[in-house]
Write a structure and sequence with these properties.
single chain; alpha/beta; 187 residues; binds iron/sulfur cluster; 12 strands; seven-stranded mixed sheet; TIM Barrel
Length: 187
């Protein structure tokens, strides 16, 4: 498999991006430009780094601590076709739960040609732009307009809304602060 995905950052074991422990991927690139976005460093489509789908899947599957993965950004669905290839292969090789955060509203998503297949791999979509005036910043929604779209019964709204508000993780060469109201990646 030769396809690659453009990534901004990864946390292999996150507790603040959904229930339990999750491998969390911030995708690079977003064109929505929501006012007050907490993560402007993810907007450029030229920054970030490429990872192979094979390498990413091996890293995820080798991680025995996680219950699932969270796809966030940036806008993951700028790379929708490749994400479908990635999720299809991951689902063949694991039973991990899948949460997707996207700036598209559910009504926008439903008419995308890729949505019927994409939706078969995902348990929960958190859908909609961030609207600063409607900021709430708990669970996985940064603003009240964003919708939870449960596509399976794997997760409940209580589990989602009880996710920790934020976490700080220290790595050899960086520090990452993330959660429903903050994403900071420090070298
Ligand atoms: S969709 Fe998300 S990443 Fe993109 S500008 Fe809006 S809040 Fe920021």
């Amino acid at each position: 498999m030769t396809e690659t995905l453009k990534i901004h950052e990864v946390i292999p074991c996150s507790r603040a991006n959904g229930p339990s422990i999750r491998y969390t991927i911030w995708f690079q690139g977003c064109t929505f430009n929501c006012k007050g976005c907490i993560n402007p460093a993810t907007h450029s489509t030229t920054d970030g780094y490429q990872v192979s789908i094979d390498g990413l899947i091996k890293d995820i599957i080798a991680n025995e601590k996680i219950e699932g993965i969270t796809l966030t950004g940036g806008e993951p669905l700028l790379q929708a076709e490749t994400i479908i290839i990635f999720l299809k292969e991951l689902k063949l090789r694991s039973n991990l739960g899948i949460i997707l955060l996207t700036g598209y509203s559910y009504s926008e998503l439903k008419i995308k040609s890729y949505f019927p297949e994409l939706s078969t791999y995902i348990d929960l979509i958190v859908a909609g732009r961030y609207i600063e005036d409607q900021r709430i910043s708990y669970g996985l929604r940064g603003s009240a307009n964003k919708e939870y779209v449960f596509l399976t019964n794997r997760y409940t709204i209580e589990e989602i809304e009880n996710s920790p508000l934020a976490e700080i993780q220290f790595f050899d060469n960086k520090k990452i602060i993330s959660g429903s109201f903050i994403d900071i990646f420090l070298e």
